[in-house]
Amino acid sequence: MVINTNISALTAASNLNNSTNMLNQSLARLSSGSKIVNPSDDPAGLAESIALNAQIGQTGAANSNVSNAVSFAQTQDGYLQQVGSALDEMSTLAVEAQDGTKTDSERADYQKEFSTLAGYITNTATANFNGVSLFSAASLSVTTDGSGGTYSMTGVNLGASQYTGATGADISTTSGAATALTSVTAAITQLATDRATVGANEERLNFVGQELGVLQTNLSAANSQISDVDVATESTNFAKYQILVQSGTSMLAQANQNPQSVLKLLS
At residue 98, what are phi and psi to the nearest 5 degrees? Predict the structure, then answer.
């Protein structure tokens, strides 16, 4: 039996220190909800989690861009629906103005209504969405993924000759009304093409948005497996380390009392 070096106490103290560290680590995980409290807990997992978090953020930003582009397309189509209604009415007026039983005065009234509708279409051509022109001929580039991939939305041009030919027509005479009807019909045909283009853009973007939503969910799930704590498992560990710390403290006290038995040999 030795006095200067209490091996039992040193061993008990070392075990108690390890148990205390594990208890503190378990407590930190439960309180933070993360398995990686310190980089040393899982260096490789931390690196992967950082990369996944960045990708999740990038994917979310791309999804937001796509959602804005869908709203842009929906706004375009909303305007085009009203332009279609105006063109339909203009075609009706052009046919009515060709009626030989109508007087020039009546045709002049038709022309006033026709011009008002044409003015609406002309003004609509200047509409914008958040400062971006809705109906310029330019395509709109939309970011579709976190890596910077893009989709080019085909532009719709309400300043095209098919539209300006209709809005510039005059139905104050029967011959002019006949010419106007041809122009309005051409504008209606162009409108059908433009609405189909907008619909195709919107459909493509909806698919992209759904894809990005699924990707973001899966990336979040993968990151959760790496960084999120399993509360049930960690609670079990916490209880285990609590018992080890309590028993270790008791055993250390016992080990520190052992050298006192040497006094009995000296008495």
Answer: -85, -5
* Same domain (yes/no): 84, 213: yes
d(CA 49, CA 41): 13
Q: Which amino acid is at 49?
A: S
What is the domain extent for residue 137?
62-226
Confirm whether 1 is domain-assigned: no
Residue 2 pLDDT: 56
Average pLDDT over the chain, rounded to an integer: 88
Q: What is the CATH number of the domain that holds 195?
A: 1.20.1330.10
Q: What is the dihedral of CA 209, 211, 217, 221, to 10 degrees?
A: -160
Claim: this prediction has a pTM higher than 0.85: no
Query: Whole-angstrom Cα distance, residue 87 to residue 95?
Result: 12
DSSP string covering 141-163: EEE-STT--EEEEPP--TTSHHH
Compute CA distances 146 → 53, 150, 220, whole Å. Answer: 12, 10, 14
